[in-house]
Amino acid sequence: MSIVDRNLRLEGSRRSFGLPASLKSSLPAVAFAVALGISLLMQTRQDVDSEPYRYLLTAAVIIYALRAGLSSFSEKRRAKVLRDSPFYTAAGLLVALWDTLSTKLNILPLPFVPGPAQIISVMKEDWNTLLLSTAYSVRLLAVGFVIGSIIGIVLGVLIGWYQKWSYWMFPVIKFMGVVPATALIPIVMIIVPSSFYAGVLLIVIAVAFPVAFMTGVGIANVQKTYFEAARTLGADERFLIFRVAIPGAMPSIFTGIYTATGISFATLVVSEMIGAKAGLGWYINWAKGWSNYAKVYASIIIMAIAFSIVMAIIFRVRDRVLRWQKGLVK
Fold first, then answer.
1. Which of 180, 265, 259, 176 is nearest to 218 (CA)?
2. CA Rg, the chain, in Å?
3. Global pTM?
4. How far is the C-alpha of 130 from the C-alpha of 301, rounded, in Å?
5. Considering only CA atoms, which of 276, 219, 225, 279 is closest in space to residue 249?
6. Residue 325 has what DSSP assignment?
7. Which one-letter DSSP state was computed for residue 324?
8. Which residues 6+ apart lie within 8 Å of 205 measured at CB?
9. DSSP string, 148-206
10. Higher pLDDT, 325 or 268
11. H or E stretch covering 122
12. Which of 17, 120, 174, 190 has its CA 20 to 30 A from that of 94?
């Protein structure tokens, strides 16, 4: 049997064991329905208000059932639903297992590992404080991230384009870029007495160095033929910088922004734990002091959701800016 025949037979066997598309798209709704059934039917051994958790599971079942039903009207939507199905199915089953081991069987130790019902209940009880803390954190992150990105891009362009800037500033970036911004907290607190502006300055430092480094590297790696072709057509220095160098360095600039996003979140949490009067980092520190780990987990989940939203926005912007790369890279 040739290799081609063997591969065709294997492919055929895989297709014969594959689930129908309609069933596969419905699996996430089934998984969350299983979690809802466990919450309703099994006896609870912990003192927990499970009503908000059950409402959330019911909403998840309805949403994923609607997604599966509506996917039959569009090939593009069906492909997306089928692609997401294994992940959300695993998420639903994981929640069911977590609830079983914690709230139902009391195997996972309290207060360190609360169940999902307890965390959702805490979110409902403390929603106003969590909402205010999230707003404070988003404001601090947005201000620091935007200022740090602008400073990083401008500095990176100067370093990548002008030799003198590269000579003086590139060693500084290489030296200071490896120092965590949180290590500068004692110095920043002396320079900026306000906790909010100190947090902004720390995030600016955390963001500016990786963005400047990757911007400078990106501009230095733009092919010379692009500049020569532009000069042949009469382009001046301003045109070369803004129409050739910066667009050519955009993939590297976004790499620096991705790196800076994760660092800025870590810096945000640590800066809010010191001297801040609100914010998710402050909330985690406060809840930890009372050993209320359900509140700690609740704030971590909200932080993960906020981080995912920020990353989704950055990916959308990147896809729009780098749409010329479509079909050229993997």
1. 259
2. 26
3. 0.80
4. 11
5. 219
6. G
7. G
8. 148, 181, 184
9. HHHHHHHHHHHHHH-HHHHHHHHHHHHHHTTS-GGGGHHHHHHH--SHHHHHHHHHHHH
10. 268
11. helix 116-125
12. 17
